[in-house]
Amino acid sequence: MTRAQTWSLDTAARAARMKNRALQQWGTTGVLPLRGNDRKSTGHGDRSGYSRPRILQAAITQLLNLHGVAVSRGAKAGFEFTDC
Hints:
Blueprint: H1 9-15, H2 20-29, H3 52-66, H4 71-83
């Protein structure tokens, strides 16, 4: 089974036009958790990898939030668009 391509936090945040810390915080708090094609860190020195759907979800969430939608609601809408 081949694994989908993933990108680093820095690349994912830049693509979503947001700060690294905000994207990382969304993942830590469960607003935007890593899912199937994402790569979770296995420990110190091993970085997480963000798949294309997760990066698009982050971008959608960020844009909706800039227009007044709550982050949690924007993340749900982004998930519906990218994964469902």
